[in-house]
């Protein structure tokens, strides 16, 4: 039976059962302090009297008091007894409560671009790879390690990137990092140390990436844009520009691949100026109309820095990305990474290396390519049936599509989507401040919902299209 007790004017009731007397007493006292039922400075009964009330050994109460004193909930002084610590006064008591911000509704459906179907993460295959990797890992793998990353992963990446993306990579030129933004942060520091004043960016893209370069002290002028994509021929006119960040294989958010003549032009600019092309291989593995477009880095490995990540193909929570660097940049990058963050998680790197070597990664990408292509086709068919005036673009590759809306309707459509619990973004969200406005459009991430949520998300989307 539970023991109930009330004490010294404070309406405090503790229910303690069986062998959990000590733990129950501690939990109840913590909760009483949090809730304000025990005021700061309140004197608690002696361990002897409380033990008698509870019908338990005095040591049980004395040990509980001692542990709560050590945690900072109580204080104990000779001659003063045991009291509630003043610094433990709850912060959320009504007289001290800060104004509560207005609640925001949680979206029912998430169609924001940038995230894969997390429910499709290959848990069983990843667990097998993790077990095999840990079983065979040398003891030194759990030390600080090489700032470039585990040699097993760099060797596996060199083989895979050459085969799947046409990247010229040697293990000693690969640096593993904790995500694309982390790699870009390191690059920004190296560029600034080299005296580079500006790194050009595409006029539409993730603002976070331009912000990363700006925080490194670089100017980030936006290049012009037309129906064929980013106008790289404007690069020579940008004074002090020593680098350009591009999504050449699948421009984000519009979705097109950089045309061959412009691919050649940006490499020619880098050769002539001594600049660098920072290639964000965004969605490079997910091409649906033909074989994936090869990486720009293959045109000139000494002038292009290739950046890839497992965030779209597997999951962003893994925090695994990589840079393939020109020979002259690899040592500088390793030195910078060694002073900022010496190594990413060794067990995750070893598991990913095993995942690549075993062929599990290739199988997973092929399966997800089919899965996402079906969703793309369902999106195109549903929009054609419910909103025939809406054009769907950027569908040859990637995990998102662009829905061009009638002029002047983007904001109204976004408001309607929010009212229906639909999280989605307009193309204007990705516009750089100096870029000219594009036609009204929605950027639809069709990979994000789980299989069970996808039909409802698609129905909600069609319901808000003008």
**Structural class from helices and strands?**
alpha/beta
H and E string? HHHEEEHHEHEHEEEHEEEHHHEEHEEEH
First CA to last CA: what distance? 65 Å
**Rounded radius of gyration (Å):** 29 Å
Strand order of the largest sheet: 4-11-10-9-8-5
Uncertain residue ranges = 1-13, 15-19, 88-98
Which features does this protein show?
466 residues; alpha/beta; six-stranded mixed sheet; four-stranded antiparallel sheet; 16 strands; 38% helix; disordered N terminus
Q: What do these coordinates show?
A:
The structure is a single chain. The protein is of the alpha/beta class. The chain is built from 13 helices and 16 strands. A 6-stranded mixed sheet has the order 4-11-10-9-8-5, with helices on both faces. Strands 12-13-16-15 form a 4-stranded antiparallel sheet, covered by helices on one side. Strands 1-2 form a two-stranded antiparallel sheet. The N terminus is likely disordered.
């Amino acid at each position: 039976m539970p023991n109930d007790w009330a004490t010294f004017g404070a309406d405090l009731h503790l229910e303690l059962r069986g062998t959990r007397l000590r733990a129950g007493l501690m939990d109840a006292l913590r909760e009483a302090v949090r809730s304000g039922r025990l005021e700061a400075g309140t004197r608690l009964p002696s361990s002897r009297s409380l033990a008698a009330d509870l019908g338990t050994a005095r040591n049980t109460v004395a040990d509980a008091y001692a542990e709560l004193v050590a945690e900072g909930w109580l204080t104990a002084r000779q001659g003063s007894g045991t009291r509630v610590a003043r610094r433990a006064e709850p912060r959320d008591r009504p007289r001290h409560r800060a104004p509560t911000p207005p609640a925001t509704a949680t979206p029912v459906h998430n169609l924001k671009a940038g995230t894969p179907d997390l429910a499709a993460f290959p848990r069983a295959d990843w667990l097998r790879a993790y077990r095999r990797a840990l079983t065979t890992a040398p003891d030194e793998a759990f030390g600080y390690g090489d700032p470039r990353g585990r040699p097993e992963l760099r060797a596996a990446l060199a083989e895979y990137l050459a085969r799947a993306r046409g990247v010229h990579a040697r293990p000693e030129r690969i640096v593993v990092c904790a995500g694309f933004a982390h790699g870009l942060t390191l690059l920004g520091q190296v560029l600034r140390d080299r005296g580079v004043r500006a790194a050009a960016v595409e006029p539409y893209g993730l603002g976070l990436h331009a912000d990363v370069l700006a925080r490194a002290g670089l100017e980030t002028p936006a290049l012009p844009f037309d129906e064929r994509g980013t106008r790289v021929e404007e690069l020579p006119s940008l004074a002090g520009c020593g680098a350009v960040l591009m999504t050449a294989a699948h421009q984000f958010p519009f979705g097109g691949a950089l045309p061959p003549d412009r691919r050649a032009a940006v490499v020619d600019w880098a050769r002539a100026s001594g600049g660098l092309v920072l290639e964000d291989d965004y969605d490079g593995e997910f091409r649906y109309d033909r074989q994936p477009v090869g990486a720009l880095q293959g045109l000139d490995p000494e002038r292009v820095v290739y950046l890839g990540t497992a965030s779209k193909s597997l999951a962003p929570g893994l925090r695994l990305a990589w840079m393939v660097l020109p020979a002259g940049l690899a040592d500088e990058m390793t030195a910078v990474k060694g002073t900022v963050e010496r190594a990413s998680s060794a067990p995750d790197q070893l598991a990913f290396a095993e995942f690549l070597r075993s062929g599990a990664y290739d199988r997973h990408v092929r399966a997800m390519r089919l899965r996402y292509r079906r969703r793309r086709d369902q999106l195109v068919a549903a929009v054609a049936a419910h909103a025939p005036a809406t054009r769907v673009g950027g569908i040859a590759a990637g995990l998102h599509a662009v829905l061009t809306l009638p002029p002047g309707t983007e904001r109204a459509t976004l408001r309607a989507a929010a009212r229906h619990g639909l999280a989605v973004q307009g193309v204007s969200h990705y516009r750089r401040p100096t870029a000219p406005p594009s036609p009204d459009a929605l950027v639809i991430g069709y990979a994000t919902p789980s299989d069970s949520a996808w039909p409802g998300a698609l129905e909600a989307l069609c319901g808000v299209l003008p």
